[in-house]
Amino acid sequence: MQLSLPAKTTWLTHQAKTALATTGLMALGVAFEFLSRHSAEMRREIEPWTEGRTFSLGVLPNGPAIAVRKERGQLCYLGRGDHGAALCMRFKNLDSALLVLTGQMAAHTASAEHRIVVQGPIDETVQAVRAMAIVVKYLFPGFMLGSLTKRLPVLSRQELALKALLYVALGPALMRGIAK
Fold it and tell me: Which of 23, 82, 104, 120 could in theory staple to 87 by disulfide, Cβ–Cβ 3.0 to 4.6 A?
């Protein structure tokens, strides 16, 4: 006699993956906002962006999504949903999203493997991806960066301190971000 619970297990697995993807996207949104306030590199990257530019990251078909907007020279994490963003970057499925959000695959690799669909201007997409590369540099631990970036970044003491500060601020910011 064989016992199997594929339907219930599949539902539970999907819920766990969705929760993990939601948390990962929220961490990205919080990190975008934090770094636009505290990182000179991020401020230089987003300086040419027009005020009100909004971009969204999410998962197809009906998975979690977050939106980030430039307001008063800084990026603001708007919360869940696409918030009418002109630029939407969507992972084709939860598994592809989790590979990137958990640091198992670089975003540029996911793009090369056609795991991401982009709707919006290509120049804004490239700018958002460059900003995301800055976020990845600070968000993931150093031992993971070799496989996530094209070149291993060398962080100064000030950047290492900023990275530590981001880690400390991430927990409370995620708790506040849940309400958004």
Answer: 120
* CA distances in angstroms from 38 to 35, 153, 163, 172, listed in the order given: 5, 18, 10, 17
Q: Considering the domain 18-175 in this protein, what is its CATH number?
A: 3.30.1050.10
Q: Tokens 């900023």, residue?
A: 162
* 70 φ/ψ angles, rounded to the nearest 5 degrees: -85, 120
Which pTM value belongs to this model?
Answer: 0.87
116-171 tens-digit pLDDT: 999 999 999 999 989 998 999 999 988 888 778 777 888 899 999 999 999 999 98
Closest by alpha carbon to 92, among 61, 132, 129, 128? Answer: 61
Give 35: exposed, middle or buried? Use CB within 10 Å, 0-12, 13-18, 19+.
buried
For 88-98, the pLDDT digits (tens) are: 999 999 999 99
142-147 LR contacts (CB < 8 Å, sep 24+): 144/103, 147/103, 147/106
Residue 91 contacts residue 115 (beta carbons within 8 Å): yes
